């Protein structure tokens, strides 16, 4: 098996063949999840704790379901409401949980690098469920699986990532993953929402949707992260929708069989037209949600195997 | 009769720009003779054989944070003084960004008394430019000068109100007081933890363009032109800030500039996987900027190298990068880090000592910083070649937030003297 990591902290640390290993395993779990009896035992007896320092419904539900389907004991902790507000530091919280002997720790945190820091202090597998503007590896993996199933391959595709790149950990993880798999990546958005030095990532950068979407195979829309903006990145949402919102007219510039993706939750009428998002011929947004559970099952399965191997060796 | 004779030394003379073999005689705490022509050495009560190691004026470090009053658990005058002595720093010029700020003569007197009791090296305090470093009302600059303040600054709290800053500069000028500015546009740099660019984007860190430094410097230069003030920029770290600095000097304004040892020896990539000991203010820059700073020190455009010694306890650093405190301790690593620049042929030894010793002394009106007869015998004996692996557990500072932990370095301080008295001897 070519997947040797203790934690899943980011796509940056993965090699292309490790990504393929993970996606192949996830395919098995897609099958399992579509069966009548959706139970595996890969995580039987293990304890999974979901620590979300930032609100999340979808990702947390996806991780919870993934763990339960593989037989783990899953506990959710809403960290915003707990000891953090009493002044406990991230590391103290981590050490406290560590003493309860969890096997898998799923962490989301508003600060970039916070999950890396936590992983240094605990002796179980840590999965990054999104840290600040840094990485969201399971999202990039589920996007990759969705693309591979829709397009039949995960290389030599023209892929456009559109919108609020600057505030998006989803965009960063996707840029890294799709780059490792040798795709051409275009970033489209207003310059105020582009991170600095982005051209050095090996992406083509556009500030015009019509130009940028020309002949692409995949259109990934990003959510406009209104909660992360401290003001003045765009003049208004209606002007943003007019220039960067994905609708049928703009999509007409892409290849006729181009698929439309969105990590959710969507701001309908801000970055994407509602009708288009629901168009089952173009939109794979619901598939992304389905792949999310399978990819997270695969990721936790692989980490649990490595952890067993490590503990067995010790 | 001579009190101490340093013989068989390589004398680093920043004024002459030379390194020559010779001896230095010390009497009554001052240099009483320099012998480089092989003539007879004077009789002395005590002789220090330097074994062909280097002897230079002690370092004068502008911008040391000693956390008294307020956070003595991070650093006290005692611990900072020991760290300074171990680092070859014979004069600490201390910052007023304490809690409370050193913004009135009473607090300043407390600081001077504590320094005298506890620190084995010279301590010269800088006082705040505005009350509470809040940028609203100037401090009692006259009283503070009388009480012993050598300069005025609000440190990294930039005085954003141009009227307040202009009045403070004018008033300081009338008293001949030196003002230290922190060239930075605070609007642009608000919330930033890194320098903008590929690395910051990859790590998802809030970042600031180095242009914010250039804008801050442009503003300060305009204020100097308006008021005629004596001004020193605490840290120039970006290549883009050098042309305006050069023009301001060519225009004859009373301006000097410093940079930090970290900006001369590290770059933004050193942060790697969110290593918070590398989080400093302004944030580490690109390699091109680092090289430009080294060149500017060598050419003399940048006058001063400082440690910007900023102690932080483990609790303020063991946090996600964005939330972690800024600053690094550097009193003890300043000299070995500077030796990196020497060994890389980027800055020669006399120029390093001009920036670490002679120029700070000149700017503050001190008679130290020289290897000349009559100058105070504040001296450091060091071996620029001695290799070692930095271990932060060995630091004298109460806080050990050094970015050089585990780094291979070359350059050891062997002995430090203040006014002819030994304050440090490597065991």
Description:
The complex is a heterodimer of chains A (314) and B (427). Chain A is of the alpha/beta class. Helix content of chain A is 40%, strand content 14%. Chain A has helices at residues 16-34, 58-69, 90-98, 114-121, 137-151, 169-180, 209-212, 237-244, 248-251, 274-278, 285-313, and strands spanning 47-52, 73-78, 104-109, 125-131, 158-162, 184-188, 204-206, 218-221, 259-261. Chain A has a 5-stranded parallel beta sheet. In chain A, strands 2-1-3-4 form a 4-stranded parallel beta sheet, sandwiched between helices. In chain A, β1, α2 (58-69) and β2 (73-78) form a beta-alpha-beta unit. In chain A, α1 packs across α5 (137-151), α1 (16-34) crosses α11 and α5 packs across α11. The longest helix of chain A has 29 residues, at 285-313. The relative contact order of chain A is 0.16. The mean pLDDT of chain A is 93. Chain B is an alpha/beta fold. Helices cover 30% and strands 25% of the residues of chain B. Chain B has 13 helices and 18 strands. In chain B, the strands form 3 sheets. In chain B, strands 1, 2, 3, 4, 5, 16, 17 and 18 form an 8-stranded mixed beta sheet that branches. An 8-stranded parallel beta sheet of chain B has the order 6-7-8-9-10-13-14-15. A two-stranded parallel ribbon of chain B has the order 11-12. The model of chain B has no long low-confidence stretch (mean pLDDT 97). The chains are: A alpha/beta (314), B alpha/beta (427). The A-B interface holds A 12, 89-91, 109, 111-114, 116-117, 131-135, 169, 172, 195-198, 200-201, 230 and B 191, 196-207, 209, 273-274, 315, 318-323.
